Amino acid sequence: MTPFDNIPIDISVQLGTTMIPIHQLLRMGRGAVIELDTRESDEVTILANNVPVASGQVILRGDRIGISITEVLFRAPTARAKEAVKRL
Question: What angle do CA 7, 11, 12 make, to 5 degrees?
C-alpha cells in the first residue's frame, strides 16, 4: 500500500458547454432542457479535482451511463508537485 492509495479524488465528466443569459437560467424549472455545443458521438472531458486528465466516449449499459477512456492527457509536473513527491 502506498501513501497515494487512500487519497480521495473527485472525478467528473464534462459533456459540453453553452452560454445563456442569466434571465433565461433563472426562469428554468423542472424539465427544462439546456442544449450543449456537442453531439452524441463527440468526446467528453474527464476531470480529476476540476483538472482535465483524460478524454472519453459515453457508453450506455442498460440503464447505466459510463465513460470509456480514449486518451489520457499528460501534463508536465509543476515545481510544487515535484517537491511533494520528494517529501514522500
Answer: 160
